[in-house]
Amino acid sequence: MRRRALVLMLAGLVVLPACRERAAPSPPPRASSAPGNGWNVLLLTVDTLRADHLGAYGYRRPTSPHIDALASRGTTFDRAYTFWPKTRASFVMMLTGRRPSQNGYSHRHPQLLDFNPTLASVLKQAGYVTAAVVDNANVAKGLGYAKGFDSYREIWEQPELKTEWEGTQAITQGGLEFLRGAKAERPFFLWLHYVNPHAPYEPPAPYDKQFLDAEAQAGPKQHVVSGFRGGIPRPLYVPGQKRVGYYVAQYDGEIAAVDQQLGLVLDALAASPAGGKTLVVLASDHGESLGEHDYYFDHGEDLFEPCLRIPLIVAAPGGRRGQRSDVWASTLDVVPTVLDAVKVPYPPDLGGESLFAVTGSGAGPKRERLFAQNDRNLMTTFDGHFKLVAKLEDGRTSYALYDRASDPGERKDVAGEQPEELRRQRRELELFVEATDREWAATRRRLEGAPQSEGTLSREACDRLQALGYVDSRCGP
Q1: What is the percentage of the chain residues whose pLDDT exceeds 70?
Q2: How far apart are CA 137 and CA 465, in angstroms?
Q3: pLDDT band at 454; cut points 50, 70, 90
Q4: Are 406 and 400 in contact (CB under 8 A)?
Q5: For the chain, which has fewer Cβ within 10 Å, the N-terminal or C-terminal residue?
């Protein structure tokens, strides 16, 4: 039964479940009167941001002084992961706190479906003013992501913003304007989503030259190729630049540029009356492969560390400063963490767990592993020692096992050498699939009669997606 459930899941006959530890019970609703304790919430998300390219996570280049300063004022989660390394799915999970088996995200419904409470809708119901300024049309309001927001500004819908950098600055200005206009008598939830450092890596001056050091010019030259495997992808190729180090330097330059913008927002918050009573959460939707596993300047095709690991920093009023945690953390945990912090009751059936206690002197979730999946019929479970990746090929499921303790780059498949460990990891994955498949039974009833469309996208949204390298069936040729 377990093997059949896994094969069906990978084949797409059973809709794919989200990544998380074995379906643990949701935290009970908290008894509180709206709007909770009155804390504000600032959610800062940076697209395609690898944790290991930030100073707060030990990176050698000074890419992130303002993010590092935020980390010094809060808690940095060292083992934080997305469970779906593509923007659209990742934010469905982050904003609902639910697995796909609960929120209905699938190939048939690749959007945020309306039956789900979202972080914004819950906070709005609790009396919050809610606003968002976002870039990346994968989170377009036509796909459901604006649910619960009083104001939802989509940067790509502003034709006067000619470049990505102008859009980045517009997000910051939108955030600053909101903070200036915030009223003390009502708490707010503000979400700012920056698309940098998503490819193409084109940081503005002076960040375009900031990291063009000897390391950026070292290493062998690569071929220019049509896809994302085997060399420099042709659409991203800069004439004369065939070394990976150059593109990594530009990726880092984009991080430094967006970090400077985040600094403006964080400084404005600190200087405002809201500064002392605002919970700040910084995260990313997924990472980026920078040539690891022969996969260049993209994300989502595999489930290795570069695409899955993300930064997660939580700074709470009165919380411990400069703290690090090795608790296993997921993007599913954002909703319960925020609602726990502001003392607003949880929606039912959350897939994540609150990390808020960790920001003080408490303990976090006791889980020992996480799960992840992608759009390409891959699914993984991993703990502090091993990672198992399941893949459907020609109607059969194959497995690869990596010893993360001795092989942190996840380069060698040891499935044949460690059959007992392979069986143990397979059992964990199969049990999780069975548990989430039972959740699908209830979710499918909610989906009955729901349109099987992918939502609606404007011409501007389509243009923006294509500029970022996405192909969407609704956008035409």
Answers
A1: 88
A2: 6
A3: low
A4: no
A5: C
Helix pair angle (334-342, 87-96), 10° resolution: 30
pLDDT-derived band at 471, boundaries 50, 70, 90: low
* pTM, 2 dp: 0.92
Q: Please state the φ and ψ torsions of residue 94, each to the nearest 5 degrees.
A: -65, -40
Interstrand relation of 151-154 and 129-134 (parallel, antiparallel or unpaired): parallel
- Stretch 428-451: mean pLDDT: 87
Going by pLDDT thresholds of 50, 70 and 90, the confidence category of residue 19 is: very low
Helix or strand run (H / E) with residue 43: strand 40-46
If pLDDT is split at 50, 70 and 90, which confidence band does 241 have?
very high
- Asked if residue 331 lies in contact with residue 86, where contact means CB atoms within 8 angstroms, the answer is no
| Rounded Cα gap, residues 258 and 266, in angstroms | 12
**Residue where the block lists tokens 């700074």:** 315
Six-digit token string for 64: 């992130």
C-alpha 126/C-alpha 272 separation (Å) is 23
Q: Residue 427 in 3-state DSSP?
A: helix
DSSP 189-205: EEEEEE-TTSSS--PPT
Q: What is the C-alpha R_g of the chain?
A: 21
Nearest to 74 by CA among 56, 95, 59: 56
- Residue 241 CA to residue 248 CA, distance in Å, equals 11
Alpha carbon of residue 43 to chain centroid: 12
How far is it, in rounded angstroms, from Cα 437 to Cα 428? 14
Name beta bridge partners: 212: none
- Distant-in-sequence, close-in-space partners of 477: CB < 8 Å, separation ≥ 6: none
Quote the tokens at residue 319.
């919380």
Domain residue ranges in the chain: 34-367
Per-residue b or e along 23-40, where b marks 16 or more CB atoms closer than 10 Å to that residue's CB = beebeeeeeeeebbeebb
DSSP assignment of 244-273 equals HHHHHHHHHHHHHHHHHHHHHHHHHHHHST
Instruction: Report residue 407's pLDDT band, with 50, 70 and 90 as the boundaries.
Output: very high
Q: What DSSP element (H or E) covers 133?
A: strand 129-134
Q: HEC profile for 430-461? A: HHHHHHHHHHHHHHHHHHCCCCCCCCCCCHHH
Q: Percentage of the chain surpassing pLDDT 90?
A: 79
Residue tagged 């010019």 (tokens): 217
Of the pLDDT bands very low, low, confident and very high (cuts 50, 70, 90), residue 259 is very high
